[in-house]
Specification:
Pfam families: PTS_EIIB, PTS_EIIC. One of its GO terms (biological process) is phosphoenolpyruvate-dependent sugar phosphotransferase system. Residues 107-480 form the PTS EIIC type-1 domain. It is a multi-pass membrane protein. One of its GO terms (cellular component) is plasma membrane. By secondary structure, the protein is mainly alpha-helical. The chain has three domains: 5-97, Gyrase A, domain 2, CATH 3.30.1360.60; 169-291, no CATH class; 302-482, no CATH class. Helices cover 64% and strands 6% of the residues. It has helices spanning 5-14, 43-47, 70-81, 88-95, 101-113, 117-135, 146-149, 151-168, 171-183, 187-197, 236-255, 258-301, 305-322, 327-339, 345-365, 370-384, 389-399, 401-419, 443-465, 472-482, and strands at 21-26, 30-35, 54-58, 61-65, 218-220, 225-227. The strands form two sheets. A four-stranded antiparallel sheet has the order 1-2-4-3. It has a two-stranded antiparallel sheet with strand order 5-6. β5 and β6 form a beta hairpin. α13 crosses α15 (345-365), α15 runs antiparallel to α16 (370-384) and α15 (345-365) runs antiparallel to α18.
């Protein structure tokens, strides 16, 4: 009998057996099931398996938290179950049967932006570093920056913009490529479409506001004129254009005979899409994006901005459970393109810190429980580094009161952040390292907000732990005993 034979056998039984598994895969810490009938999963018994650290359902997938041993456990599980190994994409596709139309829409949005996040995080760190060396006057009596007094750092500052520009100004290329990849269409056509939205021939999007209408270049077709405006860093125009290209290509594939499809499909998919993008989708998408960013920014900077911050800070962790938090990526990117930064993302980083601190308090409360610490310590570390699932699903939601304490701590930290006007250069690492993405002039206030996200959840978690009625784990055990 192998090390994982018993827990794997138990898990197979409690998810409803082999016949209830459409497909299964794993990620860094979790088993990810697409179940034919999710109601057959016995959550109580699954979570009683010693190796299991928690369960949750997201995007139609039933996910079981195992920890760093998940890869070896998965191999044993599929061997016992007699299943074939599956990819994450297989599970996603199978899980769609368990998703509502809203969940499908959110899943699509997440699939578009997830491949782009590593580049966006790097770009945010680079912009933050450039701001520190190029904008903060900390030499010669606070009159000069590091760039002003050093040729080397001046060169570094200029060179790093090469990467920053590639990531943010040319973001539409990444978006249209990602859509093509997700939709299973020709990826190079997606890249070409994105390039047509940010071509150097076009008036840069950042220059449009300061250019007179009469000075905007245009294509003259005799019967019509089309403004030559670029969509650098614009999110919604790229999304709209990307989906038009993908659906048009898929339509043509079905209608055009294979013998001529290599010529006809790319031509009649790309050319009309580029025309539509610059005449209809681009202008409409720009206006939609501007409205979204204006509403969010106005809400956060208005006299009731504190209320917006309180609601978002309190609700963000529950949004993660539903998967709706993926929508914030598009809003953050739109804010960055319109305003040169985002005041929404800092609250996300603070929410992650607050949830991690709630687990830290649980480590203190259960300091004599070695088994609990084996789960809690890695969960805290990963949460502080931006990966919240082990902490939220493995500890906080299991007990209940730490999750609430983290939400309340996030609420107050969000108010401090928004109330002091904190702005981030871009999306960054959603935890303690998030301070590196904050614009330099706001780093001090963000550090204060981080302190709130440490102190409030820690104190509240300890206070709530003294109230047995708030402990979901204790209440569950009591219910079983009474039964």
């Amino acid at each position: 009998m192998g090390k994982y034979t018993e827990p794997a056998t138990d898990l197979l039984q409690h998810v409803g057996g082999k016949e209830n598994i459409a497909t299964v895969t794993h990620c860094a810490t979790r088993m990810r099931f697409a179940l034919k009938d999710p109601a057959k999963a016995d959550v109580t018994n699954i979570e009683s398996i010693k190796l299991v650290k928690g369960t949750f359902t997201q995007a139609g997938q039933f996910q079981v938290i195992i920890g760093n041993e998940v890869s070896s456990f998965y191999n044993e599980f599929v061997s016992i179950a007699g299943l074939q190994e599956a990819s994450k994409e297989d599970v996603k596709n199978a899980a769609k049967q368990n998703m509502s139309w809203l969940q499908r829409m959110i899943a699509h949005l997440a699939d578009i932006f997830t491949p782009l996040i590593p580049a966006i995080v790097v770009g945010g760190l680079i912009l933050g570093f450039r701001n520190i060396i190029g904008d903060i006057k900390m030499f010669d009596g606070s009159t000069k920056t590091l760039v002003d007094i050093s040729q080397f750092w001046g060169g570094v500052h200029a060179f790093l913009w090469l990467i920053g520009e590639a990531i943010f100004h040319f973001l539409p290329v990444g978006i249209t490529w990602s859509i093509s990849k997700k939709m299973g269409t020709t990826q190079i056509l997606g890249i070409v479409l994105g390039l047509t939205l940010v071509s150097p021939q076009l008036l840069n999007a950042y220059a449009v506001a300061n250019t007179k209408a009469s000075d905007i270049p245009f294509w003259d077709f005799g019967f019509a004129q089309v403004d030559m405006i670029g969509y650098q860093a614009q999110v919604i125009p790229a999304i709209l254009a990307g989906f038009v290209l993908a659906y048009l290509e898929r339509f043509l594939r079905d209608k055009v005979h294979n013998s001529i499809s290599m010529i006809v499909v790319p031509f009649f998919a790309l050319l009309p899409t580029v025309i539509i993008a610059h005449t209809i989708l681009g202008p409409i998408g720009w206006k939609i994006g501007s409205v979204i960013s204006t509403v969010v920014y106005s809400g956060l900077t208005s006299s009731v901005g504190w209320l917006f911050a309180a609601v978002f800070g309190f609700a963000y962790a529950p949004l993660v459970i539903t998967g709706l938090h993926h929508m914030t990526n598009a809003i953050d990117l739109q804010l960055m393109s319109e305003l040169g930064g985002t005041n929404l993302w800092p609250m996300i980083a603070l929410s992650n810190i607050a949830q991690g601190t709630a687990v830290l308090a649980m480590i203190y409360i259960n300091r004599k429980d070695q088994e609990e610490r084996q789960v809690s310590i890695p969960a805290t570390i990963s949460c502080y580094l931006g990966v919240t699932e082990p902490a939220m699903f493995g500890i906080n939601l299991k007990y209940g009161f730490p999750f609430l304490a983290g939400m309340i701590g996030s609420l107050f930290a969000g108010i401090v952040s928004v109330g002091s006007g904190v702005m981030a250069n871009s999306i960054g690492v959603g935890g303690i390292p998030g301070i590196l993405s904050i614009q330099p002039q706001y780093m001090g206030m963000f550090a204060l907000a981080m302190l709130v996200a440490f102190v409030v959840p820690f104190i509240l978690t300890i206070a709530f732990s003294k109230r047995p009625k708030m402990n979901l784990k204790t209440r569950t055990k009591t219910t079983k005993l009474n039964a």
